[in-house]
Amino acid sequence: MGDTRVEILEAAVDILIESGYDALTTEAIADRLEISHSGVHYHFETKDDLLIALIEEYLTDQLEAKVAFDGPPEKQLPKLLEFRIRGAKTIQQLEIPPPSIQLLAATGGSDDALRQALDTLFEAYVAELTATIRDGVESGVFDTEAPERTAWTLAGLIEGAEVRASHDGSPAPFVWGIEAYVLPALYVDESPTLNVEVDDG
Amino acid sequence: MGDTRVEILEAAVDILIESGYDALTTEAIADRLEISHSGVHYHFETKDDLLIALIEEYLTDQLEAKVAFDGPPEKQLPKLLEFRIRGAKTIQQLEIPPPSIQLLAATGGSDDALRQALDTLFEAYVAELTATIRDGVESGVFDTEAPERTAWTLAGLIEGAEVRASHDGSPAPFVWGIEAYVLPALYVDESPTLNVEVDDG
């Protein structure tokens, strides 16, 4: 049993988190799974193929997580935000650069396929935020004339938190920025506090 | 005349912007300046030494630019913001990753000295924003109980704009986020529009 392709991707994430991008080799993956190098190469011809699949798996996870906490927009928006802020918190605890930075790092942004996969990931997240904000405007719980720009603003602050966390800094000020500036202006009724504990920097 | 050390740093910035991190070699710098490789090595023993000096030069430039537009806090804050948003706009026009990402890219965040230099750069910028916001609170033009967190929020949005620009995206939504959410809550009187033209994404 077990899907080798999925096992390879999971091993790749573990290696990336534990030891960073340089340690991510087909050899390391093969050793960890106790399979042959050619077994890894059968599924992913190049490291780039692997990285792109990795990003696309993350994307699927995110969308699935979103579906899991489907609810009214005023409840769904905090969940969507918390989902990625927890990611930033994990990054801070592990004291590693976020995978997206590590992957970009691999190529200095010069690998178009990889870059495009990262863009797709980020844009899918912004699209979820935008849809949720639009729903909330329609149902009267949110007030904004620019749902998509608001989504970008929120996503940008979370990206800031991730980058900050990757520099051993606290994501706390960015979470605060969302709570203090964006949500109070967006929510017609009282705005929520995000349910994430982040240590002060 | 001419300080070779400064010329090397300027050539390094040009190469980084034109051709990216991989192209940044002592050979490329020596060729561009028509000096010997050892001339480059005399000033910077390793590529890391060069990169760290580069970041510190940027830092100096930023602080000098800040002094150049010294004024009352309500005028100075937009200038400080515009200064870095213009950087994001340049990044978008050049279609390159921002130098900070390129430099992080070089090491995957694993080079502590380089990472620390980048942190120092970012923190100096946040410190300038914080001082300006504190001044404004004292003189009664700004209203916030958390000048430093507000500064992080603003800096984070600009970082978001830079990262976005490096993915061929427009910094516009982040600029809008600053104008629509943060400045109106911060300014006691009418908040300013930032004087930067950024194309819509």
UniProtKB/TrEMBL annotation, chains A, B:
Leader sequence residues: none
GO MF terms held by the record: DNA-binding transcription factor activity; transcription cis-regulatory region binding
Pfam families reported for this sequence: TetR_C_6, TetR_N
Keyword terms, alphabetized: DNA-binding, Repressor, Transcription, Transcription regulation
Residue ranges that the Swiss-Prot or TrEMBL entry lists as coiled coil: none
InterPro entries reported in the protein's UniProt record: BetI_C, Homeodomain-like_sf, HTH-type_TetR-like_transc_reg, HTH_TetR, Tet_transcr_reg_TetR-rel_C_sf
Annotated protein name in UniProt: Transcriptional regulator
Species assigned in the record: Halovivax ruber (strain DSM 18193 / JCM 13892 / XH-70)
